[in-house]
Amino acid sequence: MGKLSSAGDQAPVAGAPGDTDLALAQAGDDAAFTRLVAPLQAELHAHCYRMLGSAHDADDALQDALVRAWRGLPRFEGRSSLRGWLYTVATRTCLDVIAARGRRALPVDLGPSSERSVPGDTPRNDIAWLGPYPDGGLPAGPAGPGARYEQREAVELAFVAALQHLPGNQRAALLLFEVLGFTVAEIAAMMDTSVTSVNSALARARRIVAEKVPARSQQQTLRKIGDARVRRLVDGYAAALESGDADALVALLTEDVTWSMPPLPHWYRGLAAVTDFAVAQPLSTCGEWRHRAVTANGQPAVACYLRPFDTDGPYEAWSICVLTLRDDHVAEITSFLGPEHFLLLDLPTALP
């Protein structure tokens, strides 16, 4: 790991709250260490998710980072804030994961869209897929005075997916500067590199992200649409699936709508292709649907439960459909298949 005491914000003021816990933790008091890091765990977890594109990977990385921090805390000299020091440890931990595993993907990264429904599409388990994020604990505003992105903007699917196209150092530099508000000099110390290298990484990262992320964030779109219209879109989507009403579903969609379902590799673009898929599969042959409105990645989402036709069993967890809105229509549907995503969102895996 190297020395972890040279990055972050200003040094803590002597006698400030937490100084006693810091001294106790450095002396080996694990309860004091828990009290120190507890207020920062949610934002550190979100940082790990942005870096890695998976809430499960973020769980593991944060746990590893906290173990590293606990072991390295006696060497923390207070020249930076504890928050900055912990971000150093978490960022370096995530960079190790990226170096070992590579980036995560969505179906749109694999190839062109399909024009017709693909029956019997089988999961690609050889691909590390991007996953959804339970954003309930994130604040709405920026993390620091120098941050460009709001915390919820920075977990939106388009932004996190764009980050996956960046090398680890560029990903880290962009997040630390634009999302968390650290200075270039602080980031250089955190990443054990030069200010020139950080500025170069930032320039390249901004260019790639600008090409892949819409000019208007989902947070801006949601505020413009308003809560009432968002609820109607979510309820309308769920009702259309439950009733098998293709016309009602199509009325909610943009002309260039996309629908993807990781870990299934095929995806669809445009009303004709999406309608063909919807009519051939979820609206007719899959079974009976039940739904719950939720949020994920700072966006409206629908938890979909499925029961095969002509059975009396429970409705089983099937997918978390994250909706990306444009104006007052649905522009993207990303359906994350699998009950593990329901556990992330504290949802039951079956409904009666």
TrEMBL record:
<comment type="subunit">
    <text>Interacts transiently with the RNA polymerase catalytic core formed by RpoA, RpoB, RpoC and RpoZ (2 alpha, 1 beta, 1 beta' and 1 omega subunit) to form the RNA polymerase holoenzyme that can initiate transcription.</text>
</comment>
<dbReference type="GO" id="GO:0003677">
    <property type="term" value="F:DNA binding"/>
</dbReference>
<keyword id="KW-0731">Sigma factor</keyword>
<protein>
    <submittedName>
        <fullName>DNA-directed RNA polymerase sigma-70 factor</fullName>
    </submittedName>
</protein>
<feature type="region of interest" description="Disordered">
    <location>
        <begin position="110"/>
        <end position="131"/>
    </location>
</feature>
<dbReference type="InterPro" id="IPR036388">
    <property type="entry name" value="WH-like_DNA-bd_sf"/>
</dbReference>
<dbReference type="InterPro" id="IPR007627">
    <property type="entry name" value="RNA_pol_sigma70_r2"/>
</dbReference>
<dbReference type="InterPro" id="IPR013325">
    <property type="entry name" value="RNA_pol_sigma_r2"/>
</dbReference>
<keyword id="KW-0240">DNA-directed RNA polymerase</keyword>
<dbReference type="InterPro" id="IPR037401">
    <property type="entry name" value="SnoaL-like"/>
</dbReference>
<feature type="domain" description="RNA polymerase sigma factor 70 region 4 type 2">
    <location>
        <begin position="158"/>
        <end position="207"/>
    </location>
</feature>
<dbReference type="InterPro" id="IPR013249">
    <property type="entry name" value="RNA_pol_sigma70_r4_t2"/>
</dbReference>
<dbReference type="GO" id="GO:0016987">
    <property type="term" value="F:sigma factor activity"/>
</dbReference>
<dbReference type="InterPro" id="IPR013324">
    <property type="entry name" value="RNA_pol_sigma_r3/r4-like"/>
</dbReference>
<dbReference type="Pfam" id="PF12680">
    <property type="entry name" value="SnoaL_2"/>
</dbReference>
<dbReference type="GO" id="GO:0006352">
    <property type="term" value="P:DNA-templated transcription initiation"/>
</dbReference>
<dbReference type="InterPro" id="IPR014305">
    <property type="entry name" value="RNA_pol_sigma-G_actinobac"/>
</dbReference>
<dbReference type="Pfam" id="PF04542">
    <property type="entry name" value="Sigma70_r2"/>
</dbReference>
<dbReference type="InterPro" id="IPR039425">
    <property type="entry name" value="RNA_pol_sigma-70-like"/>
</dbReference>
<dbReference type="GO" id="GO:0000428">
    <property type="term" value="C:DNA-directed RNA polymerase complex"/>
</dbReference>
<dbReference type="Pfam" id="PF08281">
    <property type="entry name" value="Sigma70_r4_2"/>
</dbReference>
<keyword id="KW-0804">Transcription</keyword>
<keyword id="KW-0805">Transcription regulation</keyword>
<dbReference type="InterPro" id="IPR032710">
    <property type="entry name" value="NTF2-like_dom_sf"/>
</dbReference>
<feature type="domain" description="RNA polymerase sigma-70 region 2">
    <location>
        <begin position="36"/>
        <end position="103"/>
    </location>
</feature>
<dbReference type="InterPro" id="IPR014284">
    <property type="entry name" value="RNA_pol_sigma-70_dom"/>
</dbReference>
<feature type="domain" description="SnoaL-like">
    <location>
        <begin position="234"/>
        <end position="332"/>
    </location>
</feature>
<comment type="similarity">
    <text>Belongs to the sigma-70 factor family. ECF subfamily.</text>
</comment>
